[in-house]
Design brief:
With 399 residues, the protein is α/β, with parallel strands linked by helices. The chain has a single domain, classed as TIM Barrel (Alpha-Beta Barrel), CATH 3.20.20.210. The protein is built from 14 helices and eleven strands. The strands form three sheets. A five-stranded parallel sheet has the order 7-8-9-10-11. The chain has a four-stranded antiparallel sheet with strand order 2-3-4-5. Strands 1-6 form a two-stranded antiparallel ribbon. Strand 10, helix 12 and strand 11 form a beta-alpha-beta unit.
Length: 399
């Protein structure tokens, strides 16, 4: 996988499907095949004879409630992360009943309360991260208090925690070190700190107030990045979930590109690689991606789930960017693609791979709970038939 990202010749295209949603859902529904019972993601990958999708953490290991204390602020924690976060110097109350998680932080500017939830039904659907029910910012009066919360967040590097994660993954995959879901402070406000419709109104009617908040959030973002860079990871994760309708092109250009570009420069200066999670409708964003200078576009979702084919996405990203993904999740569902349609889809996709360089095949975004896993074998057969990958190799060389 690392050789692929660096553009070096390899013996075959890597195949690393993300399995945590499938695993959690089938485990919670009592439908996990016996041979997979009790396995972690590395062991599952070995059993399936695929590479381990080790991006950020093993999310089949359900988190302790304390790891969800700041989820309402768009911040989650995990034992595999290279950092942890504490609220320093402000009174805090945290209550949970196993499904609801309520956090209240008292600041000089007032109290901020968030409510997130993770129900048994959500777990049965494979969801392992709570959804936000009550946002920190309900109106303009909350901006100062939220700014004070971020100014009191203490970031503590935990490189040893990441090292354990990396050791567990071993040579079954690349242990991608977790950064923040949001690429920038403004992206976090949009994604997690307020209702999305409210955000659009704020962004167009009171952008100056939002920029004042992002200015005070930036030191926290810098502290998280500094902590992540202390771990011994080859690949760093930063930013996720871009969509042309939500992170629309002018917003992406102004609020996300500068941060990804800044992060990429520091990552590259340290001899590391940058991965960002691009899952979403990306057609209108593709022209902006090269300016971000990231190395890996992960969870790339093509047609028929989005407007672009895998070929179009790879051509837009250019020859220096690795695509990780490319197989839409619905292709594994019998009720979405019958067997003949699936085989035809694979034939067309592989016929357009060219030399196959800088491609890690995966499922966009996650293997669904009802997936027909026998189709993994057909994907592996196509990979085997495609053969070696290297610069200068053409389809005619394969014939």
């Amino acid at each position: 996988m690392l050789a692929t990202i660096c553009g070096e010749p390899i013996d075959r295209i890597p195949w690393a499907p993300r399995m945590d949603l499938w695993y959690v859902a089938n485990r919670e529904n009592g439908e996990l095949p016996e041979r997979f019972t009790g396995l972690n993601m590395v062991e599952l990958a070995k059993e399936l004879d695929v590479a381990c999708h080790a991006v950020r953490a093993d999310f089949t290991n359900l988190r302790s409630p304390d790891h969800l204390l700041l989820r309402g602020f768009g911040l989650d924690l995990h034992n595999d992360y290279p950092f942890t976060i504490k609220v320093a110097g402000l009174p805090i109350e945290f209550h949970h009943d196993g499904e609801n998680f309520v956090t209240t932080i008292k600041t000089p500017a007032g109290e901020i309360t968030t409510h997130t939830y993770l129900t048994a039904e959500m777990l049965r659907n494979g969801i392992s991260l709570p959804f936000i029910k009550s946002y920190p910012i309900e109106d303009k009066n909350d901006l100062e208090a939220v700014a004070q919360v971020f100014e009191h967040l203490e970031v503590i590097p935990t490189p040893d925690a990441y090292a354990e994660f990396q050791k567990r993954i071993g040579d079954q995959g690349v242990a991608v070190a977790a950064g923040l879901y949001a690429a920038s402070p403004m992206h976090l406000i949009l994604h997690d700190l307020m209702n999305i419709e409210q955000f659009f109104n704020f962004y167009y009617e009171d952008l100056e107030a939002l920029y004042k908040l992002t200015d005070r959030m930036e030191p926290f973002f810098e502290a998280v990045f500094d902590a992540v860079m202390l771990c011994d990871a080859e690949v760093i994760y930063w930013g996720s979930n871009y969509d042309q309708n939500i992170t629309w092109p002018p917003f992406f250009r102004d609020e996300i590109v500068p941060w990804l570009k800044k992060v990429s420069k520091r990552v590259h200066a340290a001899g590391k690689l940058l991965l960002t999670h691009t899952d979403g409708e990306n057609k209108a964003l593709l022209p902006l991606y090269p300016s971000c200078e990231f190395d890996i576009a992960e969870s790339v979702c093509p047609h028929p789930m989005t407007a672009c084919t895998l070929k179009e996405i790879r051509e837009s990203l250019g020859s220096e960017t690795t695509v990780w993904g490319g197989i839409p999740s619905i292709s594994l569902l019998d009720n979405s693609m019958v067997e003949d349609e699936f085989e035809k889809y694979l034939d067309e996709m592989f016929s357009e791979l060219g030399t196959g360089e800088r491609l890690i095949l995966g499922i966009s975004d996650n293997v669904p709970p009802e997936a027909n896993l026998s189709r993994f074998e057909k994907i592996k057969q196509k990979i085997e038939s495609f053969g070696q990958v290297g610069w200068g190799k053409t389809k005619s060389d394969k014939l």
